[in-house]
């Protein structure tokens, strides 16, 4: 079996074709990583810090090549691709300091003298399963902290991002067995989850749930970041022009293929009419051929395009109205117009499922309570934005929204790599990713008691 990826903006362009690892080679990669882990841990904090710093330098030195590869392999607009490379460099540098972080604490024994301490130790081999939409940043924000604290890594990237993952590992230049990529799909992902000592997954909800069940069934620690159905609440007092600009970016940026993209816009009271007009205009401007390439880009493949256009057509057939977009763009590649739909009836899948494209529904709410209830009416609570000038409203929303991230007067998309990141309810499972929090996830805490020789029992 081979794994191949094609340019979404030019489907005749084969980006890479390689042999899939298969289950046996995936197991062999884990075995090799387990052997390599002993020497990786033994090089100590200074050695691991230096190695992660060199990975950052190598990615930075090849930034233009990597940005072009992201554009070609997964269709990300160039400005965002450059941003992803810069973020990847920053993540390597940030975690290059982590080997020096304290790895435990000293406690006062309840009785007697001696030393009572806790110490965090790596599990061994971290098995990472990643999606295609951030083909450098997501593998890095999992691998760098896992490596920093002394694990070795086996990475199973999404087939659509195979070339990016292989180039990333090559540039990282780590010793044999420390960071291994196993190309493939579900077979290799399943084999990796069955063999690793700690598992981190990002991807769709259905696959994430299966990964969590498999890992917890084996009793190994697991975290999973899954799909979102993200809302934006716009209050009548908001700066409507700014809100429309932020929402247009959150709906159509990278063709809505971010887990944090906005797919439900909830307009409160009098905000509805002016917001509908301003947002429709902003999205229509992005359908212009130049902006479509620079801001939106294509969706990942033909199946995604058909799923999206089918959902839009069925929403319109059910009584919905396209205020902007609504159809495929007739050009080479998998392009769909940035789309805003009003009056989509309750129960339509566009209101309850993640479609992962530049399509949003516009909903009405009578007041803030109704808007918060509507935003919370999903298990996929990843990121919600609130647009208002009223601090009390913003504070109430930050308290009462279920989302893993609440962003006030900012798009729902956008993530700071040095703070915890995770969805709420069905959008995330297990400890948070990113920041310092994730260092705990990749280590097990043990308690050590040291008494002087000859102490009474
Ligand atoms: P996907 O679930 O199809 O695939 C994710 C990874 O799982 C891939 O590497 C895939 O090969 C692998 N896989 C597939 N079946 C498997 C199985 N049975 N066992 C183990 N691994 C298996 O997702 P995708 O299409 O690559 O990515 C898009 C999805 O990712 C969207 O739902 C998006 O919301 C989500 N996502 C979430 C976040 C987040 O942080 N919450 C970030 C980015 C993307």
TrEMBL record:
<comment type="similarity">
    <text>Belongs to the aldehyde dehydrogenase family.</text>
</comment>
<dbReference type="InterPro" id="IPR029510">
    <property type="entry name" value="Ald_DH_CS_GLU"/>
</dbReference>
<dbReference type="InterPro" id="IPR016163">
    <property type="entry name" value="Ald_DH_C"/>
</dbReference>
<feature type="active site">
    <location>
        <position position="225"/>
    </location>
</feature>
<dbReference type="InterPro" id="IPR016161">
    <property type="entry name" value="Ald_DH/histidinol_DH"/>
</dbReference>
<feature type="domain" description="Aldehyde dehydrogenase">
    <location>
        <begin position="3"/>
        <end position="448"/>
    </location>
</feature>
<protein>
    <submittedName>
        <fullName>Aldehyde dehydrogenase family protein</fullName>
    </submittedName>
</protein>
<dbReference type="GO" id="GO:0016620">
    <property type="term" value="F:oxidoreductase activity, acting on the aldehyde or oxo group of donors, NAD or NADP as acceptor"/>
</dbReference>
<dbReference type="InterPro" id="IPR016162">
    <property type="entry name" value="Ald_DH_N"/>
</dbReference>
<dbReference type="Pfam" id="PF00171">
    <property type="entry name" value="Aldedh"/>
</dbReference>
<keyword id="KW-0560">Oxidoreductase</keyword>
<dbReference type="InterPro" id="IPR015590">
    <property type="entry name" value="Aldehyde_DH_dom"/>
</dbReference>
């Amino acid at each position: 079996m081979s794994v191949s990826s094609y340019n979404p903006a030019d489907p005749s362009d084969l980006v890479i074709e390689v042999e899939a690892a298969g289950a046996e080679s995936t197991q062999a990669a884990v075995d090799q990583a387990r052997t390599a882990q002993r020497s990786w841990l033994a090089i100590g904090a200074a050695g691991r810090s230096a190695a992660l710093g060199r990975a950052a330098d190598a990615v930075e030195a090849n930034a233009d090549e990597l940005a072009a590869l992201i554009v070609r392999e997964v269709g990300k607009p160039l400005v965002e691709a450059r941003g992803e490379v810069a973020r990847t460099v920053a993540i390597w540098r940030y975690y290059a300091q982590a080997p020096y972080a304290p790895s435990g604490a000293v406690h006062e024994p309840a009785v007697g003298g001696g030393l009572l301490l806790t110490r965090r130790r790596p599990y061994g081999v971290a098995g990472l399963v990643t999606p295609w939409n951030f083909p450098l940043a997501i593998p890095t924000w999992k691998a760098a902290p896992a490596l920093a604290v002394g694990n070795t890594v086996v990475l199973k990237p999404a087939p659509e991002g195979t070339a990016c993952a292989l180039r990333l590992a090559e540039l990282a230049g780590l010793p044999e067995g420390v960071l291994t990529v196993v190309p493939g799909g579900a077979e290799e992902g399943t084999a990796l989850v069955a063999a690793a000592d700690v598992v981190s997954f990002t991807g769709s909800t259905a696959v994430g749930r299966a990964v969590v069940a498999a890992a917890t069934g084996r009793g190994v620690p697991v975290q999973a970041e899954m799909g979102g159905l993200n809302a934006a609440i716009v209050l009548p007092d908001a700066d409507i022009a700014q809100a429309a600009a932020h929402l247009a970016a959150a709906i159509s940026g990278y063709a809505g293929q971010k887990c944090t993209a906005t797919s439900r816009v909830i307009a409160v009271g009098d905000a509805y009419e002016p917001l509908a007009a301003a947002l429709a205009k902003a999205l229509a401007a992005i359908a212009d051929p130049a902006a479509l390439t620079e801001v939106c880009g294509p969706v990942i493949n033909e199946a995604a395009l058909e799923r999206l256009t089918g959902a839009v057509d069925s929403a319109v057939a059910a009584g919905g109205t396209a205020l902007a977009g609504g159809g495929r763009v007739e050009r080479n590649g998998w392009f769909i117009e940035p789309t805003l739909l009003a009056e989509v009836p309750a129960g339509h899948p566009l209101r309850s499922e993640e479609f992962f494209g530049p399509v949003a529904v516009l909903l009405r709410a009578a007041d803030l309570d109704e808007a918060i209830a509507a935003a919370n009416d999903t298990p996929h609570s990843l990121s919600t934005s609130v647009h208002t000038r009223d601090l009390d409203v913003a504070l109430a929303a930050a308290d009462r929204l279920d989302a893993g991230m609440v962003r006030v007067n900012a798009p729902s998309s956008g993530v700071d790599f040095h703070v915890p990141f995770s969805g709420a309810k069905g959008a995330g499972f297990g400890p948070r990713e990113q920041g310092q929090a994730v260092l705990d996830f990749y280590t097990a805490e043990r308690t050590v008691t040291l008494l002087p020789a000859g102490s009474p029992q």
